[in-house]
Amino acid sequence: xxxxxxxxxxxFSLSACYPYIEKTILEIEVTVKDSEGKMVDxxxxxxxxxxxxxxxIKNYKTQYTKNGKAYFxxxxxxxxxxxxxxxxxxxxxxxxxxxxxxxxxxxxxxxxDIHLERLEDPKVNQKCQNNTLRIR
Length: 136
Prior knowledge:
With 136 residues, the chain is mainly beta.
């Protein structure tokens, strides 16, 4: 009986800290076209994951489009609920030399059809933020 009474506070404290799986990156498919509807090859696509958990942390993953398409696979991680309110938000940035850079906030949408506008000067490069980890 004494052992059982000793275990009650331990079990109670552990019940507030339970494991779960959280989605850290959404599954996202991006199609990039120009204003004429032609696929834009080698457009720079940056997926930014922002985690708010007391402080804000940003993670970046990048790809270049192949035949006008880029794909980010879903990523889940094992976490412990320790009473902290962790919130994930995602955004996309798409750029290519000679085109206007574009940003998109992501909620639940996972398929993006992006149309880039040509700039007057084809040498101008409005590159997305690039302190990134490149995935292949």
